[in-house]
Amino acid sequence: MLRPVLLLFIFFVTCHAQGRFEVDYDNNVFLKDGEPFHYVAGSFHYFRAHPDTWQDKLRKMRAGGLNAVDIYVQWSLHNPKDGIYNWTGIADVERFIQLATEEDLYIILRPGPYICAEIDNGGLPYWLATKYPNIQVRSKDQNYLNEVETWYTQLMPKFTKYLYGNGGKIIMVQVENEYGAYKICDEEYKIFLRNLTSTFTEDKALLFTTDRPIDNELRCGYIENVFATVDFGIASEAEVAYNFNRLREVQPKGPLVNSEFYTGWLTHWQEPNARRGAAELAETLKIMLSEPYKANVNFYMFFGGTNYAFWAGANDWGIGKYMADITSYDYDAPLSEPGDLTAKYYILRSVIGEYLQLPPLPLPDPSKKRKYESINVTAVDNLFSSTGRANLGSKPIEGSDKLWTFEELDQFSGFVLYETKLPTVFTRDPANLVVEKLRDRALVYIENRYVGALSRENAIKSLPISKGNAGKKVQIFVENQGRINFQDNFDLKGILKNVTIQTFFEPYYEELSDWTITGYPFEKYSQIEDLINSHGNYVYSRSKNGFLYEGPVIFKGTLNISGDEELADTWWSYKNWGKGSLFVNGNNLGRYWSIGPQMTLYIAKEFLKRGENSFVILELQRAPSDLKVDFSNEADYNED
Q1: For 132, 305, 561, 610, which has the most beta carbons within 10 A of its beta carbon?
Q2: Residue 639 a catalytic site member
Q3: What is the mean pLDDT of residues 197-216?
Q4: pLDDT, position 357
Q5: What is the domain partition of the chain in residue ranges?
C-alpha cells in the first residue's frame, strides 16, 4: 500500500502536469497552476477572416501585448442545415485553436449556443424555425434543449484536448451570452446549459457568464456556481467603479473581468460610420488595469473583419426600428479590416506594456494594397427570365393563398419572389398596395417592370398602383437583409402577414391570393456558373439614372493579374452601382449598397490569384452605363 505522503505527491504531480485554472475568491485573482494570473485578451472571430490570414492576425495580437484570444463559435456556420455539419475552410475552428496555441495565446472559448456577434440570428440556425415553427429559443422549450444538446455533442468534443486541464490553452468557457439582456431569466434553461457544458469541460476549464451592468441584467444572467463577468466600453473613473460595483452585487468576491471592452462599435446601413477615440479607450484601460481593480480585460473587437456572404445581422434594440448591419466589421478595432496595425493598436499596446511584459515580436508594416485597373462587366441574365428562374430559383409553389416565409421554404437567406394577379377592376386610382409585415426589403414589379421599393428599415410598406395595371401580374421580390441578432426571439423573413390593395368598399382593402412563390437562396455558386456557361450576353433595360427596369441582373467580368505581379489587397469602389452582392472566384464577399456609409467592399488578396479572376455581380437595382468595376487601395466609409 502506498503511503499517504506518496499519494499526495503523485496527486500534486498529476494535477500540475495537467494544469489547473481556477478562481481564488478570497484574494480576487485567477490562479493558473496555483500562481496568480492576469489576462488581457482580444476578440477575433475566425469566421470573419480568410483562413490563410488567421495566423498573421493572431501573431499581431500577441505582439500587441495580449496573452489571450477570445473566440465565439457560430452554430449556424457549422450546422447550416439540420443534420449537416461543416468543419472545413473558414469553419475549421479546430485549426484556429491550434494556431492560437502556436502563437502562445490562451483561449477564452464562447460556444453560445447564442453569440449575438452582429451575425444573422445571433448565430442560431434559421432551420430551427423551419423544424419547429413555434420554437422558443434560449429557454426551457424542450425542442430547443434537444437541439442544443445535439449540437454540443458534435461541437464540444473537438475542444477536449485543448482544455487547460488536459494540457491545452483553453482556460475559460462561456455559458450562454449576455443572457440578462434577453429578459426571460429562465432558471431551468440556465442550469441545463451549465450542466451540459460542464459535461464536456468537467473541471478542465473555468465556466463563466458575461452580462451588461444595466437594470437587472447581471442578476438575470447569473448562474449558480458559474463565474460572473461584466462588459462595458469607454467609461470615466466613476463609471468604471459603478460598473464593477454592479458586478459585486451578484458576485462579492473574485477577480474583476470586463469581458467585452468595446474598442469601437458596429455600424448599420444608412447611418454614419461608428468610431471610438483611442485616447479615451487608453484612459479607461488604465483605470481598469490599475489599483484598486486590477481587472482582467478582453477587447471587443481587437480584430473585426468582414461579414461575408449573407452573414451580417441586424438590430432593433427594442425601439421598433429595424437596422441592418453593413458588410464591413472593421469595428474601428486596433487591427483594421485587412489586419493592419492602426494608431489605436500602438496606443493600447503601450498601455498594456505598463502591466504585462510585451513579447519580443516585430511589429510588421501594413500589407500591400493595390488599386487595380478598372474592368468591364457584361450582363448575363435577369433573375426573372425563364433561364434565370431555372438556374437560380427553387421549384415554385403555385396557387398558394399562404405567403410562405424563408423559414417555411427551408431557406437561409437570399431572396423570395411572390407573384400573383391584381384585381381586374380597380375602384381607386391609384390604389394603395400594402405589404403589412415585410421582412425586410422588397422591389415591386408589374409584369416584370419596376414600379417601386418597400422598406422595413424606413417604415415604407405601401405604394400606389395605377388603374391601368388592373388584372396584371404583380411581383414582390423580397430581400432578407439579415436577422436581428440581439434581444429578439427569432426574426422570421419574407412576408409575414397579408398583401392587400385598396378598394372603395368596406373593409376598404382586398387581400390578394393565389400566389406563386419562388426562392432564390444563392447558396450554391455552381448554379451561377451554370447560368453563365449556358447563357450568352443579355440585353437589359435601364432608365436614364441606371435603374434596372426588368428585375435584378447577373453581371460577369474578369480581372487579369499577370504572373509576375505580387497579389495585393484591394477594395471594390461601388458608388456607381446600386445594391447587391459580389462573388470573386466563386466566393460571396458580402452585400454592397451605395446608400452607405460603406462605399467599398474589401477583397483580401487571398481571394485573388494570378491569371484570370472571376467577378460576378448580383445587382438588384441600378447599374452604371459604362458597366465598369473600379478598385481602390483604401476603404471608404463616406466620412469626408
Answers
A1: 305
A2: no
A3: 98
A4: 96
A5: 15-352, 375-379+523-632, 394-520
Residue 7 above 50 pLDDT?
Answer: no
Name residues whose C-beta falls within 8 Å of residue 460's C-beta, 6 or more positions apart in sequence.
453, 454
CB-CB contact of 431 with 510 (8 Å): no
CA-to-CA dists, residue 390 to 153, 519, 535, angstroms = 39, 11, 12
pLDDT tens column, 483-533: 999 988 799 999 999 999 998 877 788 999 999 999 999 999 999 999 999
Catalytic one among 178, 217, 408, 550?
178
**Considering 103, 147, 176, 260, which one is annotated as catalytic?**
260
Give 38-94 pLDDT, tens digit per residue: 999 999 999 999 999 999 999 999 999 999 999 999 999 999 999 999 999 999 999
DSSP state of 574: -
- Report cis status (omega within 30 of 0) of the bond before 507: yes
State the pLDDT at residue 1: 40
The domain covering 15-352 belongs, at the CATH homologous superfamily level, to Glycosidases (3.20.20.80)
CA distance 528 to 586: 9
Three-state SS for 294-319 is CCEEEEEEEECCECCCCCECEECCCC
Q: HSE of 638 in the Cβ direction (CA atoms, 13 Å)? A: 19
Expressed in percent and rounded to 5, the helix, strand and coil fractions of the chain are 25, 30, 45
CATH of 394-520, one of 2.30.29.30, 2.40.170.20, 2.60.120.260, 3.50.30.40: 2.60.120.260
Instruction: List pLDDT tens digits, range 305-320.
Output: 999 999 999 999 878 8
Counting Cα atoms < 13 Å in the Cβ hemisphere of 255 gives 23
pLDDT at position 15 over 50 = no
CB of 382 within 8 A of CB of 388?
yes
Is 375-379+523-632's fold the same as 394-520's?
Answer: yes
Helix (H, G, I), strand (E, B) or coil at 164: helix
Residue linked to cell 449598397: 593
CATH, domain 375-379+523-632, list 3.80.30.20, 2.60.120.260, 3.30.420.40, 2.60.40.1120: 2.60.120.260
Inter-helix orientation angle 93-102/54-63, to 10°? 40
The verdict on pTM exceeding 0.90 is yes
Question: Annotated catalytic, 260?
Answer: yes
